[in-house]
UniProtKB/TrEMBL annotation:
Leader peptide range in chain numbering: none
Official protein name in the record: Uncharacterized protein
GO biological process, one term: 2-oxobutyrate biosynthetic process
Domain of life: Eukaryota
Gene Ontology molecular function, alphabetical: pyridoxal phosphate binding
Organism: Rhizochromulina marina
């Protein structure tokens, strides 16, 4: 969804380890890949660590990287961790019964 509408400036390839993500995650990725002309979702055998090997090789090739304007997005960073922590607290608090009003 994040790349929809940017077809003229962005082409996104998503690799994920086949059989190692939840059915919900896979469905979300495949749906986005089928509805966005610039999103290409590919299931690959192996682990996410196995997927890093060819990706790292491409990023080390300076000529290829520059010619194809490669970039990467990694979900492991402190900002995402902090945002997700807030979601867990929000989810927990929203499941609690309402507190009694104090008169």
């Amino acid at each position: 969804e994040a790349v929809r509408g940017a077809e003229d400036v962005l082409d996104c390839v998503v690799l994920y380890p086949l059989g190692r993500v939840s059915r919900v995650q896979e469905g979300q990725m495949l749906h986005a890949g089928s509805t966005s002309a610039n999103a290409h979702v590919v299931a690959v055998e192996g682990t996410s660590d196995d997927l890093d090997v060819p990706c790292e090789a491409l990023f080390r090739d300076a000529r290829f990287k520059a010619a194809n304007r490669l970039g990467t997005v990694n979900s492991v960073n402190i900002t995402r961790l902090l945002v997700q922590t807030c979601h867990f607290f929000f989810g927990y608090l929203s499941m609690l019964p309402p507190a009694a009003e104090v008169a």
